[in-house]
Amino acid sequence: MANRKLKAIAVDDEQIATTVIKHFCGDIDLIELEKTFNDPQHALKHLNKFPVDLVFLDIDMPGMSGLELCKKIRQDAMVIFITTHKELAIEGFNLDAVDYLVKPFTFERFEKAVKKAWDFLDLRNRDDHNENKKHIFLRADYKLLKITTADIQYIEGLDDYAKIYIENQKTIVTRITLKNMLDKLPKNEFIRIHRSFIIPVKKIDWIRSKTVSVNGQEFPVGDSYSEALATIFQ
């Protein structure tokens, strides 16, 4: 990811906090802080128009908490939560935050969090540009997990979350939409057959009307996905 910088924004209702973040970012070559916001509603409107790689997000804000704002972000942005209450960070990790910072934080701790986000983005980008992916990386269970694509049985979408069912392994739940999930997977090896399901093409047993069988398990085929599914076997 040569010459690539993290594009970031900071959201905190305290002006002094965004000033500190802006100052710290100015001393780190890996990141470019594009804007700061003291109003979470304004930040959300900005994010809906201008994608970023990373959001520094205060948890305890009036009107809309950082946790609520995080759930409303539709793009695949990383989040570093900021809080004065360490116990609130636990829920932040449930939303697959990259890291959390407890106020007041030092420059060294801030830089470590930024480096963690940069390493994750670098790893994700290298994997996304590999046409013959044998593995993908996802954040779940408070860590970055390496998943062998050949072992994926199917993927189920639940709002902004995905459940990845893996052969002989524990099911993984991660915060990602099925659209973004499909973009991570090897092209032509997986197909979305329903608004709630992605399946591996090689594991299809049969297709009948609006139903498809994968390893003996039957799944519905949505009307808007049936043509793409039929094309594979023409």
What report would you give on this structure?
The protein has 234 residues and is of the alpha/beta class. The chain folds into two domains: 6-128, Response regulator (Rossmann fold), CATH 3.40.50; 135-232, LytTr DNA-binding domain (OB fold (Dihydrolipoamide Acetyltransferase, E2P)), CATH 2.40.50. Helix content is 30%, strand content 34%. The protein has seven helices and 15 strands. It has helices at 15-25, 40-49, 66-72, 89-94, 107-128, 178-184, 226-232, and strands spanning 6-11, 31-37, 54-58, 78-83, 99-102, 135-140, 143-148, 152-158, 161-166, 172-175, 190-194, 197-200, 204-208, 211-214, 217-220. The strands form four sheets. The protein has a five-stranded parallel β-sheet, sandwiched between helices. A five-stranded antiparallel β-sheet has the order 10-9-8-12-11. A three-stranded antiparallel β-sheet has the order 13-14-15, with no helix packed on it. β8 and β9 form a beta hairpin. The longest helix has 22 residues, at 107-128. The mean pLDDT is 87.
